[in-house]
């Protein structure tokens, strides 16, 4: 790609656009902005906005951009995303201007013993680009998504230079022993930008200058490695400035893979116990250090979670994530949790573990360090006691422990109402999920309908689940209270119709949301069955749509035995001829789906052998062609059935240290899913599949 010397040759007009911070003013501006920005983590958004608006520095503008960015990513609301894009662009421009000025006249700029001139603004610039990239990808426009990936690439380039500058300083100044160990492997930070693509990018109307932090150009690597292998930076022992590290900071980091090189292990040993505040007490240097760890960690984590469906798009930009490195960096950044960088790292780390990893059935013991997570949550609640985000995280941990009632009580009686609409929407959303898993149908339906007023992410989904609750209430009351049954049937009909009319309106990277496609197909299936049989849409519904939703939202592993028994009873309604005489008319896709969900229920009740028998006799007895031949087929029971069988083998083995034969059988079943053609909502188990494969790979279990 053609380099543009925008950093080194700024226009006079851009330099005159706003007053530049002096080296004397800069620390005060940063301290003021960081103090105000920390209010964001305490749910005091309005106060943070007000205080940050009083300053015009790049730090203040970054803080204001962060407030609207959080609103946008928590709520997925289009108008908020548009505001975020505008404010991020303003913050990006301010950081760019100040960085140019610092590089143009270094003698008047702040001098750091570690980082090159203008590095603090380079970090601000990279952070705004990273946030802009996330907003762009969440945007409904494919063009904006592509712009977002381009900004992601630019952020990588800037952050790489900051890392290398820090590495060079540590090698020379920390100690002679550290220097000799680190020098053997410090030829590259391991964070390489994608190769230049000649003139191909010159036609892009959203090009940015490809700058060097220090002003002097350095060679750009020709290959992008895609993963962060930062032996010097990622393993620093970060601690709060002048404070004792909490238990969450002292906990051991994830053990590196056996494939690590000898030189990397040496460097890791050399720097593991290094407290960065012993290297410098300069608040701006600490801001750069913690911010770089946050950004690199988030980048790696996000890229490692991209669904396979978007891998081709990512390959254009040569991106590949590394979850282990990303989490290691985020944990390091949490040591500075009293500033916005560390606080954001804490929020991301807790959210990833409690909303993602805790729901994966196949993972190593180290993948979910419960004691460390609880310590981090305790620290965050102490530092930011007004925030509802920590209540959400505590509720998620209760759910993971199968304490659904306690989670609902915490969310409904002990939480109150968040002053931030987007956080309040999350509280109601989490409450709705827990009520769904508890089979508290009326409360669940009412709660999902509240989500409609709080968030516009997927109204179709909210109405659909509410309707599914009334289907269950109809089936329960049909033989005992005809009037009540008729009322629930009518409500289910109206809600399903509303769900159908509301689905398909949202877009992600110019595509319909997968759940919207699912809802539209289900409605088409029931409509066709209704016309063919002469019965209404509620009567022709086969397998419980609510139990399907419970599976898609990983509810079965979070249920105690009482709730699992309720799921078994609701599933058994379908093939009970005394309650549902029409089951014999159901096509094979419904039969396979019912049996797969029953097998999952048995597996979660620790009845693995029975679960496998159901899978073998009542799911795998059908082949894919039979399933696909059904009108508007539910095509996911076979591949997901193989995943469930893999989990059975994992549980029978006793986990990562168990029977190798069973673990190999687990791997073999995963391979079948990995090689399966695309199926409906495959992204719902994508993270589980990736986590399972990586877990097995690390213990030496591979494909046969």
UniProtKB/TrEMBL annotation:
Transmembrane parts of this sequence: none
Listed Basic and acidic residues bias regions: 232-247
Compositional bias of kind Acidic residues: 198-213
Residue ranges, annotated region (Disordered): 1-20, 89-110, 176-262
Comp. bias (Low complexity): 11-20, 176-189
Pfam families found in the cross-reference section: Iml2-TPR_39
Entry-linked InterPro entries: IML2/TPR_39
GO cellular component, one term: cytosol
Subunit structure: Interacts with lipid droplet proteins.
Function: Inclusion body (IB) resident protein that interacts strongly with lipid droplet (LD) proteins. Involved in LD-mediated IB clearing after protein folding stress, probably by enabling access to the IBs of an LD-stored soluble sterol derivative that acts as a chaperone in inclusion clearing.
Record-given protein name: Inclusion body clearance protein IML2
């Amino acid at each position: 790609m053609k380099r543009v010397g925008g950093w080194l040759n700024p226009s006079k007009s851009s330099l005159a656009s706003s007053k530049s911070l002096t080296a004397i003013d800069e620390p005060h501006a940063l301290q003021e902005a960081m103090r105000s920005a920390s209010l964001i983590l305490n749910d005091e958004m309005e106060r943070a906005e007000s205080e940050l608006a009083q300053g015009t520095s790049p730090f203040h503008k970054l803080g204001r951009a962060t407030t609207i960015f959080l609103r946008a990513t928590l709520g997925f609301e289009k108008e908020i995303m548009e505001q975020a894009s505008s404010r991020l662009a303003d913050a990006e421009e301010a950081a760019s201007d100040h960085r140019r000025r610092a590089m143009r006249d270094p003698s008047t700029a702040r001098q750091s013993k570690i980082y090159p001139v203008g590095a603090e603004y380079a970090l601000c610039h990279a952070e705004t680009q990273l946030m802009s990239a996330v907003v762009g990808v969440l945007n409904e426009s494919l063009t904006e998504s592509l712009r977002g990936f381009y900004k992601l690439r630019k952020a990588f380039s800037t952050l790489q230079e900051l890392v290398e500058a820090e590495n060079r300083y540590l090698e020379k100044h920390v100690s002679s022993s550290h220097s000799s160990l680190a020098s053997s492997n410090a030829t590259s930070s391991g964070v390489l930008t994608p190769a230049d693509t000649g003139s191909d990018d010159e036609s892009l109307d959203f090009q940015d200058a490809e700058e060097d932090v220090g002003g002097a150009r350095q060679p750009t690597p020709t290959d992008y490695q895609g993963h962060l292998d930062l032996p010097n930076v990622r393993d620093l022992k970060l601690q709060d400035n002048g404070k004792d590290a909490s238990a969450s900071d002292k906990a051991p980091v994830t053990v590196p893979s056996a494939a690590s090189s000898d030189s990397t292990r040496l460097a890791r040993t050399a720097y593991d116990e290094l407290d960065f505040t012993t290297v410098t007490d300069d608040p701006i240097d600490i801001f750069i250090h913690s911010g770089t760890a946050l950004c690199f960690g988030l980048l790696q984590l996000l890229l490692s979670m991209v669904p396979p469906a978007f891998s081709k798009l990512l390959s254009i930009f040569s991106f590949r994530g590394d979850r282990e490195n990303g989490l290691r960096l985020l944990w390091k950044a949490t040591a500075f949790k009293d500033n916005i960088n560390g606080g954001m790292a804490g929020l991301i780390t807790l959210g990833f573990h409690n909303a993602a990893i805790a729901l994966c059935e196949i993972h190593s013991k180290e993948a979910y360090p419960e004691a460390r997570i609880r310590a981090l949550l305790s620290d965050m609640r102490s530092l930011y006691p007004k925030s509802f985000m920590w209540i959400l995280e505590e509720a998620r941990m209760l759910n993971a422990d199968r304490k659904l009632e306690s989670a609902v009580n915490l969310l409904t009686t002990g939480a109150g109402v968040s002053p931030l609409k987007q956080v309040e929407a999350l509280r109601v959303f989490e409450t709705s999920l827990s009520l769904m898993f508890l089979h508290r149908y009326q409360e669940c339906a009412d709660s999902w309908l509240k989500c409609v007023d709080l968030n516009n992410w997927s109204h179709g989904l909210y109405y659909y689940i509410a309707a599914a609750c009334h289907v269950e209430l109809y089936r329960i009351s049909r033989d005992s209270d005809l009037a009540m049954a008729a009322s629930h049937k009518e409500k289910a009909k109206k809600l399903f119709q509303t769900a159908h009319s509301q689905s398909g309106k949202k877009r992600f990277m110019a595509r319909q949301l997968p759940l919207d496609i699912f809802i539209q197909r289900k409605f088409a299936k029931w409509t066709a069955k209704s016309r063919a049989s002469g019965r209404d849409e509620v009567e022709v519904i086969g397998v419980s749509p609510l139990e399907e939703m419970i599976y898609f939202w990983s509810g079965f592993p979070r249920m105690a035995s009482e709730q699992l028994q309720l799921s078994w009873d609701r599933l058994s309604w379908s093939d009970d001829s005394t309650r549902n005489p029409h089951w014999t008319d159901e096509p094979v896709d419904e039969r396979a789906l019912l049996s797969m969900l029953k097998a999952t229920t048995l597996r979660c009740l620790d009845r693995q052998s029975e679960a496998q028998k159901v899978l073998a006799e009542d799911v795998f007895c059908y082949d894919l062609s039979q399933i696909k031949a059904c009108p508007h087929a539910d095509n996911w029971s076979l591949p997901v059935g193989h995943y469930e069988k893999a989990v059975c083998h994992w549980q029978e083995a006793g986990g990562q240290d168990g029977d190798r034969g069973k673990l190999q059988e687990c791997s073999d079943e995963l391979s079948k899913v990995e090689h399966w053609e695309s199926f409906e909502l495959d992204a719902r188990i994508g993270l589980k599949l990736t986590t399972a494969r990586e877990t097995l790979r690390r213990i030496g279990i591979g494909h046969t």
